[in-house]
Structures are given as C-alpha cells and as structure tokens.
Structure to design on (343 residues):
C-alpha cells in the first residue's frame, strides 16, 4: 500500500532543507517499491520514500487505452530494482527527474518501447541537447508504430485540449470502450529469458514472437568536422520460437541522426571495418521526420548474427557510415549481452 502521507511529508522536508542548486546536483540511490502510474514510482531511499516521476515523458492516463499496459510495462522494467534518481523539480506530492538503471535512462527506454510520448519543450523545459536525444529515441518507436503509436486515436494530454463554449480550455480524456488487445511485444513474459539485464524486450505468448533490443545509445562520429548533429545506435533482434522452443529471427541495426541538416540523404552506405578487412552492410531503409527545427533521419540496416559477432569480438572493428567512423565503445558491452541472451 502506498504511504502517500509519508511521501508528502518527506518531500516537504526536502523542500525546506535543500536549496534549489543542491537539489539539482544530488543523486539518490534507492529501490523501486511501488508503481503509481505509467511514469511515476515510489522510491525507497535511506531517509524515507519519495514519489519519483520520470522526466520529459507523458503516458496514457486511467481510462485511456493502454494505460494499464503502460503501467505494467514500467513495473516490469523497474519494480524491485535499484535505480539512481536525480530530481529536477520538487513539488508538493512528487518529484520529477532523471531515473537510470544500469546506466540506462528509464524515460528513454519507455519512449523506445512505445510506452510514452516525448513532451514538447514548452511543457518540459528541457534543454536542446536533451530534446534531440529524446526526440530521436521517440522517432524510432513512432516509425515502427510500437506501443502508443499503434493506436491511431490515442493522443497525449497536450493534444487533447479543447475549447469550451466560454472560450476556456478544457481537458478531454479518451475512454476505453473495450479492453485493449495485446500487441506483439506487450503484456507477456517469455519464461526462457530469465536474466536480460538492462535490455529492452517484449513477448507475445500467442504468436511465440518477441524482440530483444539494446537501448538507443549515443555514439560519436570521428573525422566529421561538418557534422553538427546527434547520433545514436541501436540493435534489435526480432524472433519467433517454435514448438521445440528453438529461437530464430533477424537482426536490425538502426542509426538515428538528429540535426538541422540532412547528412545522409545519399551518402548512407554502412561498412564494417576489421583491421585491413572490410564488409559492406548495404544501404538502409531510410525515413526522415522534421519537427520544424530539426530533421530526424532513421536508417535501418538488416545485419546477420555473424556480422554482429565480428563487431563485438574484434577489438579493432568499427563502423563507417558514409565517409565517417562511428565510435561505439559504449554500445559494445550492451550488444555482447544481447547476443548471449538471444542464443
């Protein structure tokens, strides 16, 4: 049972005893002990409990399609887990901030799973660097019509504002007319994937199909003086299990670029270099979205398990997109874990 009184008292004490600058710098480590809704959890730390809301995202509310699914998805990600939490804002009944688990931003993971919407800057107050990273993560899920993006009539709260007869804004909430149908990657747990660590995953027991995915992780471009954007890389394994529980599937490597320029309209062939050897990975299925300021280029390449093994196990291996090297040291360990789990 959620101890809301204790949580409110603790938050009030924090407001009185911590300056704004100190709160902005402090990081709490604790265990998630309850789930309030699709973006808010109860975090138990050394001095008590706090209500911790994930920054920069919105989720379906009670009564909307998928609200329960999103809440359960957040539960599967963090319930009982140790997380780090840096509050950005402290309110009367909750805090709002960045939560990480095994160095993975939980807000970004919710966006990548299609379990949330990315809030606009005018509502969240996020800076340009954060906005670009979160926008590129959301764009991949939107392109795949994953989660909330697979329900056309489902809208975030800021798109549901209507005007009443007296001209004042009123909030219109959608009401579910029937129980939401389970979709691939939602609602079920694969009993054969017992320890996936920080990997994202989903499973549909009826179709025996699912996915494993690294989070969308930032990478750097080398020898790219004209590159002014943000780059992130993700590898996803879509699989199916047969009656004998053998698993087979395909791997996709997705590169997301957020920039005011279009950098990869033509020069988007991807290469794997291994010392003196190189292997062409072909050209991508490419999609471009524009938010009025920045372009988000999504480039998806189908790759083999053997190619990924070479990328992980050869210390000299690197990727080259167009004329520029991609440095992915931070991705290598996550990718290694995914390949082990996928076996």
């Amino acid at each position: 049972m959620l101890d809301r009184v204790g949580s409110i008292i603790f938050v009030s004490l924090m407001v009185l005893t911590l300056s704004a600058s100190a709160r902005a710098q402090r990081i709490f480590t604790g265990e998630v002990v309850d789930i309030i809704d699709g973006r808010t959890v109860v975090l138990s730390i050394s001095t008590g409990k706090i209500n911790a809301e994930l920054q920069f995202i919105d989720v379906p509310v009670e009564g909307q399609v998928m609200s329960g699914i999103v809440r359960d998805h957040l539960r599967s990600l963090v319930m009982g887990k140790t997380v780090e939490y840096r509050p950005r804002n402290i309110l009367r009944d909750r805090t709002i901030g960045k939560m990480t688990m095994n160095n993975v931003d939980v807000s970004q993971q919710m966006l990548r799973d299609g379990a949330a919407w990315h809030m606009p800057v005018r509502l969240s107050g996020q800076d340009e660097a954060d906005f670009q990273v979160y926008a590129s993560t959301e764009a991949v899920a939107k392109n795949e019509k994953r989660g909330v993006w697979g329900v056309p009539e489902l809208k975030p709260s800021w798109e549901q504002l209507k005007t009443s007869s007296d001209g004042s804004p009123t909030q219109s909430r959608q009401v579910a007319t029937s129980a939401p149908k389970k979709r691939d990657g939602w609602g079920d747990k694969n009993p054969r994937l017992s320890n996936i660590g920080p990997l994202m995953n989903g499973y549909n027991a009826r179709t025996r199909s699912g996915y494993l995915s690294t989070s969308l992780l930032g990478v750097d471009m080398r020898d790219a003086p004209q590159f002014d954007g943000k780059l992130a890389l993700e590898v996803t394994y879509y699989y199916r299990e047969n009656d004998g529980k053998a698993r087979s599937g395909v791997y996709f490597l997705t590169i997301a670029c957020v920039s005011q320029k279009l950098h990869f309209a033509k020069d988007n062939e991807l290469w794997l270099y291994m010392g003196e050897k190189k292997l062409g990975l072909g050209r991508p299925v490419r999609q471009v979205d524009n938010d009025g300021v920045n372009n988000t280029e999504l480039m998806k390449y189908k790759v083999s398990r053997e190619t990924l093994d070479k990328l992980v196990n050869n210390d000299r291996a690197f990727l080259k997109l167009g004329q520029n090297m991609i440095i992915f040291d931070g991705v290598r360990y996550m990718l290694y874990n995914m390949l082990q789990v996928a076996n």
Summary: The first helix runs from residue 4 to 17.
